[in-house]
Amino acid sequence: MTDRAAGETGGAARKAAGGAKGPEELRDQIEHTRHQLGDTVAELMERADVKGRAVARAADLRDKAGAMTVQLRSSAAQAGHAVQDRATRAGHVVQDRATQAGHLVQDRATQAGHVVQDRASRAGHTVHDKATHAGHTVEHGVPRPVRTVVQSGLRHPRPVLVVGAAAGALIAAGMLRRRRTGHR
Fold first, then answer.
1. CB 165 within 8 A of CB 121
2. Among the four residues 20, 31, 66, 95, which has the most C-beta atoms within 10 Å?
3. pLDDT tens digits for 21-36?
């Protein structure tokens, strides 16, 4: 029993013994004293209940650990979002730079393609002219089966031009490759 509870109980008893003015007031004083005594007993039992206090403390610690877990997960999620945002921005920068570089390479390739096309066209015409001249020269001095092939080439010059253009393109590509690597 605590000092306070003992003092209140003793004070109530003195008041009940000497100061009650009637049976109704005495009953009220007794009822009040019973409540105080019940509260005091409950408080003493609570203090004596070591196991109950340990269980309550464990529950409190468990709640705090749960709250800490939630807080850590939230912090980790925020950090993850921040890293994801940075990675996205870096990806966009890289993508923009790659796009610019791609356009530059495409422009240079287009220019080189035009140069190659012009050279291949000229080479094709040269090959065609030489082939025509050689065809006329050879036509009169070759056996009949070869002459038939040459005449066919003269009647249908497009395949001869395509082969000549392809040969010119290969030659021009080889020249460009050697120029890029420093070989002349």
1. yes
2. 20
3. 899 999 999 999 999 9
Residues 6+ apart with CB under 8 A from 165: 120, 121, 123, 124
Rounded to whole angstroms, the Cα distance separating 76 from 126 reads 72
Task: Give the separation between CA 117 and CA 111, rounded to whole angstroms.
Answer: 10
- For residue 4, name the pLDDT band (cuts at 50, 70, 90): low
**C-alpha torsion angle, residues 24, 25, 31, 37 (rounded to 10):** -160
Express each pLDDT in 155-164 by its tens digit: 887 887 888 7
How many whole angstroms separate alpha carbon 139 and alpha carbon 149? Answer: 10
Alpha helices in the chain (DSSP H): 3-14, 23-48, 50-139, 144-155, 157-181
Question: Using N-to-C axis directions, what is the helix angle for 23-48 and 50-139, rounded to 10°?
Answer: 50
- Tokens describing residue 5: 């509870």
